[in-house]
Amino acid sequence: MLKEKTFLITGIADEQSLATYAAKEIIKQGGSVICTGLGVSPFHKDLSEKAKAFLNKNFEDFKEAVHRSLGNSRVEVLDITLEENLDSLSRQLKEEGVKLNGLLHAIAMDKTIRNKKVKPLLEVTKEEFCDTMDVSAYSLIRLTRYLLKYGVLQNDASICSLSYIAAAKVTFHPYRNISIAKAALERITIELADELGRSHGIRVNAVRFSPFMGSKAGNATLNEEDIEISNRMSPLGNAAPQDLANEIVHLMRPKSRITGEIRHVDGGYHITG
């Protein structure tokens, strides 16, 4: 289905990341992937030794996870908040003749979540709010803009992002700040679907997945009881990461007419949760 197609994959933190499952299925379907992870770039300024050590370890862990799960798939350093980093990577891909047929946006960050505790919204600072919005939502616009600027993202490409039910409603497993950013991400998805569909024939969709503890993101707030409750509430039970990967590949396939969708891969949790 995806033979000779190339996709940019963001958001891999470890082998259990949802983005990893999606990348595996893309490769299984004949495609190739370029994976980006947070690390030290030439564009980081005035980093402390502690920050450098953190970023270097993060990139090494990311690279090892990619190579264990996805073979010798290409890895690149990308800080989604740095315009210079995005410009440099996009220009490099252009110079190498790389043509992307799609990208997976699976990046999110929220400093108000610590040790499975969520800060009340009224206590969230402007800086915390804007940082979360920048990384988790606006980054989709920024990344797409640079890939299009250099002609790397092709016409008829597919963009897919990861969201979840808390973007639309308050759940029994509480989220606050990140939920607002995901709601913005979904709205961005719809607006980009209109703009890019008309200008480049590019499709843009988002997928909401079941509560999942396997990834670092899910493990930050969820516990086993949450998973058990959502499993009971879902008519088909919780979806598995492979279900999500299958849907992403479905949305990535060429010549589709699916765009502007907020899809649910959650066993029906969204109709009861």
Automatic annotation (TrEMBL):
Molecular function GO terms recorded: enoyl-[acyl-carrier-protein] reductase (NADH) activity
Enzyme class, broadest EC rank: oxidoreductase
Classification via InterPro entries: Enoyl-ACP_Rdtase_NADH, NAD(P)-bd_dom_sf, SDR_fam
Pfam families assigned to the protein according to its UniProt record, in alphabetical order: adh_short_C2 (PF13561)
Keywords assigned: Fatty acid biosynthesis, Fatty acid metabolism, Lipid biosynthesis, Lipid metabolism, Oxidoreductase
Key word Oxidoreductase present: yes
EC numbers for this chain: 1.3.1.9
GO biological process, one term: fatty acid biosynthetic process
Pathway connected to this protein: Lipid metabolism; fatty acid biosynthesis
Superkingdom of the source species: Bacteria
Similarity comment: family membership: Belongs to the short-chain dehydrogenases/reductases (SDR) family. FabI subfamily.
The name this protein goes by in its record: enoyl-[acyl-carrier-protein] reductase (NADH)
Lineage of producing organism: Bacteria, Pseudomonadati, Bacteroidota, Flavobacteriia, Flavobacteriales
